[in-house]
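Hi support team,

I'm filing this because I wasn't sure whether my run with adenosine monophosphate finished correctly. The job status page said complete, but I'd like someone to confirm that the output block is well-formed before I use it downstream. Pasting the exact inputs I used:
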Amino acid sequence: MLNLIIFGPPGAGKGTQSAKLIERYHLVHISTGDIFREHIQNDTELGKKVKNIMASGQLVPDSITIEMLEYEVKKNPNAKGVIFDGFPRTVPQAEALDNFLQSMNQKVNIVVQLDVNEDELRARIAERRKVSGRADDAEEKLMKRMDEYFNKTIHVLPYYEQQNIVTKVNGIGLIDDIFDQLCEAIDPLV
Ligand code: AMP
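And here is everything the job wrote out:
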């Protein structure tokens, strides 16, 4: 079982690379942002709870996010592995994931960090804004999301660096070249 975290700020290319990774390694893709958006679309209880928080660019509280994540993992007991995309975004979430996986005799095997500078991220999201229809891609919401990333999410990296499982990949360049670099890091684990 391969548990992989794809890590990076908004606009780093996590979704794009995840789509290619699931195809190659046949992993289950768990994107917490996508799942929250689906709940909002379907107007579920959870969707109602997180709608305004998400639209403002803030992080959803850990307790809600962790419960949802565990539920999604349990839904796939026969998975060959999981790509966690957009999770964990805080150190308590990372700790909760470790405990949860441990309870199933599993662990996080690798964290791939997509490294992209802030100017490039802003340019990419400005492009995405034209087509994504995401309320939180608007300029002022994006600022909040960047704040959340640099205040809270960035601290997740040292947590995994201590475990020696982080591979940093330059996230600027051709999609296929970035993908090749990810595969180089992942292939020895499968
Ligand atoms: P994303 O699609 O990954 O950019 O996530 C969009 C939004 O969903 C974030 O700005 C948060 O409001 C919420 N979200 C997604 N994943 C998490 C998480 N792990 N913890 C807290 N909030 C999250």
